[in-house]
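Subject: mismatched residue count in predicted assembly?

I count 515 residues in my input, but I want to confirm that the predicted structure covers every chain. Input:
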Amino acid sequence: MTVTEQNAPVPAIDVQDLHKYFGDNEVLKGIDFHVGQGEVVCVVGPSGSGKSTLLRCVNLLEVPTSGRIVVEGIEITDPDVDADKVRSRIGMVFQQFNLFPHLTVLRNLTLAQERVKKRGKDEAVEVARRNLAKVGLADKESAYPAHLSGGQQQRVAIARALSMDPDMMLFDEPTSALDPELVGDVLGVMKDLAAEGMTMMVVTHEMGFAREVGDKLVFMDGGVIVEEGAPVAVLSNPQHERTQAFLSKVL
Amino acid sequence: MALSPRKRARAIRGGQYALLALVLAVLVVSVDWHTIRTAFFDTTVIKGMLPEVFSVALKNTVVFTLCGFAFGLLLGLVLALMRLSSVGPYRWLATGFIEFFRGVPALVVFLALAYGVPLAFPGREVPGGIVGTVTLALGLVGGAYMAETIRAGIQAVPKGQMEAARSLGMSHGRAMRSVVVPQAFRIILPPLTNELILLTKDSSLVYVLGLSLSTYELTKFGRETMNSTNSLTGLIAVGLCYLIITVPLSIVVRRMEARAGKAR
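Triage response: the counts match. Full output below for your records.
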């Protein structure tokens, strides 16, 4: 494990000595990790390295076995914390989009606003339309997800998460299920988000995105963080053998 | 000269059609149509059944079935959620209930409710009279069947749907109601229709409760007609009346499936 950098005053995400077991299988073996306010942190590594599990622990889709996770100063691993409330402030985008197929695009965006944030219908629709315009899909509000391309579905998923006005966004391999020619649209939306100052944690295989947009790159392997630092530095001059071996395969 | 495979296939199919036509022709010629008509399709008997066969019997069958189905659906949903619960006793209770009522003949459930309840709770009976008892009996049996169907439907909804809903801050219950269960019902529409059709026919078991004229449903009405007219016509006529319920139902559901398929 590397020595962590100096902490920002109030980190958006602060993970301390996180362990996660699935049965007897230790997937995360003591992770210390943090994301500063407004930072874009990209997490890379081979499959099975625990990067998705780490991401899913941050909004408690996976319950950590031990360790602490502090989100904006609130310890979410405390059993007394209302997980639903935590999640409503953290947007999440999945590899498989996970849009609700039985609802129109607009309803996908308004459902949680009305049920969780208790917004009125008019306000929810207004917020939804604003976010659909932002991802370039204002004309698709009455379509069903099945009628959209993968890239469009993923952009709707981003707009759905944004409609909850999250403080930060988690991306779990957002472009891995897309046809190559559709990847650019989704990355473009994510780039715009980063430029607006959104705090983002991105598990990805897109090294170009990590280099261009990321403030920090974290390389994970075997349930530990092997190396982290400025993306350009890590990508062009990896210090660790395992990082070198991984990057030589994907670059 | 040997036939090409395609020509041979066509010749074989032609032969099958010819055989079918031959069987039909033999049947048509050999059946004693006159006797059939007088025994099964006696028009005076049919006229005598009007209009009660529709205004009383058909109506009661529909009412009994819908009440039983509605209760069964609700019960089935609760049982399915109990089966999927992380709380052990809920799962065991639901499993026991389902195994019992799925295994016991519907007739036995009707008899138990009709004669068992007054014995077990002296001076009381199932509220709602005949309709209440039918609702309860059909609901218990149908609910046990539907619980397993609904459970399978809920489990067929991809896990990512629940995760996406939870990641938006919805509680487990809210995510179930708004996201998972609506999708599950789309998946299980065909088997649920099957259950509704089965319950339509099971509603005929209500005769064991002892019916008066105004509570006759189709089968009882047909049997009474048969007894009083000495002709099978009454039973045949009510048998066909069941089709008036089930065939349009199948058509409506097929349309709904086609529409849901478009949104998938």
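The two ends of chain A are 24 Å apart (CA to CA). Marking this ticket as 'not a bug'.
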